[in-house]
Amino acid sequence: MPTIETPTTDALEILHREFYEGRPERIAALEEARANDATARKIQKLRAKAGLTQAQLAKLVGTTASVICRLEDADYEGHSMAMLRRIAAALNSRVEVRFLPLRRPAA
Amino acid sequence: MPTIETPTTDALEILHREFYEGRPERIAALEEARANDATARKIQKLRAKAGLTQAQLAKLVGTTASVICRLEDADYEGHSMAMLRRIAAALNSRVEVRFLPLRRPAA
DNA sequence: CAGTGTGGTCGCAAATTTGCGACTTGTCAA
DNA sequence: TTGACAAGTCGCAAATTTGCGACCACACTG
User: Which residue in A87, A89, A100 is closest to B96 by CB distance?
Assistant: First the structure.
């Protein structure tokens, strides 16, 4: 156990230092989890904004509620552009993907 | 054949009026083709910017050149977030997806 | 010409996602 | 409590994507 010298009020920051710092593989996994969660919530938000239940959106998209539920699960790793586009189309939107420079972990 | 009254210099616009106007299904297909093409070119551009050949990027990503080639094909319809993220990670980037209001076909 | 490097196509097995029904949980109201 | 509804979980077959080798076309260079 390393001596902790920097006082911290943020438990998350401690965790970050403990498990991720200097470990690119873990950082990639973190980034991936973050991206999946972000996608899931965007779908959920878009559906909520349209005032639809999962079942209603499912019908619009041409699938079932359990599928929508899966897409809105933060731990789901299988997002495909095809499905995202179907969701978007049903909600009168379109999907845009962007490649951005890697967000630098707070110094 | 409808009489064309509005003079046009843009063949693409004529095509658009002929085949897509008022046909939501076709418009969706168009949007999809557009999105696939855009994604393909973003990958290509990102790779070019990094100064890599398809084979080199493939090695970084952990796959083969033919796979990269396929991803850069404008007609490829199978883009997945998982693969896009692998590409991004190899090129020190991250992927962001956004749902945008449907672009209104030019009035 | 032969040799090499880059981009591209095709086919097929392996891995992954989608489709969907069955079932559980939680909430709200009669 | 019962009924109804929204959300969520699980398992499995079907569909789709990925992995990868073999092969073609081109351009360039010795």
Answer: A100
